[in-house]
Amino acid sequence: MFRFFAILFVVAFGLELWGLITIGSWIGGWNTVVLVILTGILGAWLAKQQGMQVFRMVQHQLSRGQMPTDSLIDGVLILIGGILLLLPGFVTDVIGLVFLIPYTRMIIRHLLKRWLWNLISSGRVQLFFRR
């Protein structure tokens, strides 16, 4: 597992560096720096807006006695998207935006739920409930 994350870190860092150099050669160094700062600010604002919306939805569902499963998954995806947008680089910005836009987040949530259900159904992940 450590090897996987080490390789992922090196590949992600290489892609980000390549993206920054490529964009910098097209639009200039200072413009690239400003663009990275603006995407960080936009990401923080968008994550706050979407996060507050999901928080209100969780509160509403809990007050009605419902289990907020989709809203909790949305909250985790928004957190991951916000973190990715705060990291400098354009690859992580694109992935972070995909996690923060409600329509694409709905698709990712559906795929994530299907993947988790397949893991549970195949017995690779077991759930234990205590009474």
TrEMBL record:
<feature type="transmembrane region" description="Helical">
    <location>
        <begin position="29"/>
        <end position="47"/>
    </location>
</feature>
<keyword id="KW-1133">Transmembrane helix</keyword>
<dbReference type="GO" id="GO:0016020">
    <property type="term" value="C:membrane"/>
</dbReference>
<keyword id="KW-0812">Transmembrane</keyword>
<keyword id="KW-0472">Membrane</keyword>
<dbReference type="Pfam" id="PF04186">
    <property type="entry name" value="FxsA"/>
</dbReference>
<dbReference type="InterPro" id="IPR007313">
    <property type="entry name" value="FxsA"/>
</dbReference>
<protein>
    <submittedName>
        <fullName>Exclusion suppressor FxsA</fullName>
    </submittedName>
</protein>
